[in-house]
Amino acid sequence: MTSQVSSQADTTDEAVVGEQRAPRAANAEAGVKEIRRLDRVIIRFAGDSGDGMQLTGDRFTSETASFGNDLSTLPNFPAEIRAPAGTLPGVSSFQLHFADHDILTPGDAPNVLVAMNPAALRANIGDVPRGAEVIVNTDEFTKRPMAKVGYATSPLEDGSLEAFNVHPVPLTTLTIEALKDFGLSRKEAERSKNMFALGLLSWMYHRPTEGTETFLRQKFAKKPQIAEANVAAFRAGWNFGETTEDFAVSYEVAPASKAFPTGTYRNISGNLALSYGLIAASRLAGLPLYLGSYPITPASDILHELSRHKNFGVRTFQAEDEIAGIGAALGAAFGGSLGVTTTSGPGVALKSETIGLAVSLELPLLIVDIQRGGPSTGLPTKTEQADLLQAMYGRNGEAPVPVVAPKTPADCFDAALEAARIALTYRTPVFLLSDGYLANGSEPWRIPEPDQLPDLQVTFATTPNHTLADGTEVFWPYKRDPETLARPWAVPGTPGLEHRIGGIEKQDGTGNISYDPANHDFMVRTRQAKIDNIEVPDLEVDDPTGATTLVLGWGSTYGPITAAVRRLRAAGDTIAQAHLRHLNPFPRNLGEILRRYEKVVVPEMNLGQLATLIRARYLVDAHSYNQVNGMPFKAEQLATALKEAIDG
Length: 648
Known about the structure:
Elements: E1 2-5, E2 34-38, E3 40-48, H1 53-67, E4 70-76, E5 91-99, E6 112-115, H2 118-124, E7 133-137, H3 143-148, E8 165-169, H4 171-178, H5 186-190, H6 193-204, H7 210-219, H8 224-243, E9 249-253, E10 263-269, H9 270-285, E11 289-293, H10 300-306, E12 314-318, H11 322-334, E13 338-343, H12 345-361, E14 365-371, H13 388-393, E15 403-404, H14 411-426, E16 429-435, H15 436-440, E17 442-446, E18 466-467, E19 473-474, H16 517-532, E20 541-542, E21 549-554, H17 558-570, E22 576-580, E23 582-584, H18 590-594, E24 599-604, H19 609-618, E25 622-626, H20 635-647
Parallel strand pairs: 2-9, 3-6, 6-7, 7-8, 11-12, 11-13, 13-14, 14-16, 15-16, 21-22, 21-24, 24-25
Antiparallel strand pairs: 1-10, 3-5, 4-5, 10-17, 15-23, 18-19, 20-22
Helix pairs in contact: 1-6, 4-6, 6-8, 7-8, 9-10, 9-14, 11-12, 17-20
């Protein structure tokens, strides 16, 4: 969905702004429920992996985006296709933070928890602060489901939830009752309880309803009875909130009218933004887009999305394995397409030999790595930033590859354009390092105007480019542009431009096979110089007060770091912030910036990979702050660590 916004940016820290309650409505005594105005809310839907929590969260998010709030989401689900029902490993959740001002993260702790069963309650209650709203599906709190997750007595009756504002709701019973006239079996009717919960939450927070009803009718267009049953359950949840005495208050969160520049916005996930960025890059370059890929979590959504856009000249190939996927993509690059392969860390390991071949052939190729927890199969549905050193050095020989990393879900669009610019301009494979947090999370994205996008037009070689001593004109495939050191890109079949390809070292200029030691030394240094000399923007530093401590981040840590910095500054502390998009080569002014500060702190979702590179390259005593639990940083956690660094 899209929405129009006309305002100026607001940098209010999401952690600083609290609730703002409106006075009780004058007609409350007449039976009209009280409405309280809030500036932000964090909701977490949690249930069994078959309860439809991701769909519920997605729909609430879509309506919130269309309403005009700023938002950030955190889907969290099991790696198993169908984890054991009612168990802690099988819990799936979706957290949404929405506000009337600029926010950066999905929030540290939910104000509202919707728990569809005992496992969902037990897995998530530890994150819920005192006084928060907890909506519980009481139908599931029977002896066996509770025993399965370690509840000896019912938490709804033993006083263990006294710190929370608990709303016991028989969601399953109410849903079945609402659908009794549809002729569905009990099992079929139960499946709509997530829509009942969505309707209830939509009433509580005054979310629009038309979009969800339209979505349900479209999703189940071939099963109209199921579509209308889901709509009925959704409406029943709304009506329950309106009529029950247990929910005496509803809440309003105004649109974020000051959070965004003027423009047309839509809610977008990182993988969807990246897919659109790749399509835009191919159109701007005037090249067909070719994706050679093998399905792998959390990158598969890009393959799914690009396969829908054949009308834009996109060709997708679902290969039999990772090696075939990148081999096809490199072949497409040789043939004059914008070649792309998508994967995660385990797939990068398998693709490394072909990436080295692309370095040797000096052809443009995008390697999109949606990082996840490792090593090996690791944590397929959890996030991590632990592939940086693999992207930098995970190949045999000296095989330098540029590395670009987006910082937010919406930024994945721009990062894809930048990766394509580098690949096409410098004739090199490029790593694009996203991660599971960005891939599955979402936020508002301002749809750019076409004239705001970069010119990526490519000129292919069409004529000979070198004259021999006897005057003969020939084509030298490794004769370089003096500014970029890029070699010419000749499409196969161009008359007179035939040349050899392969992994054996090339002779400078001619591209003939060469075992000469001096030539190899020259080619290795030339390929490295080409990467080192890539033009990237200088690093910008946010330092309004002349701080002595710098926090340096990369990738998806941007949101939590920025939120933490806002907290510290609001409390009177001085701290500077900088965030890297280009990790190879680094911005040229990075060394000078690092030497400007007494302390440099590098938060990463790994064991210190960027910090290792910084210390080695610039001899700066960079301090690591690391987390590898499969979840993104929390703003409060980072603020505490950075405060200790400032005071230490």
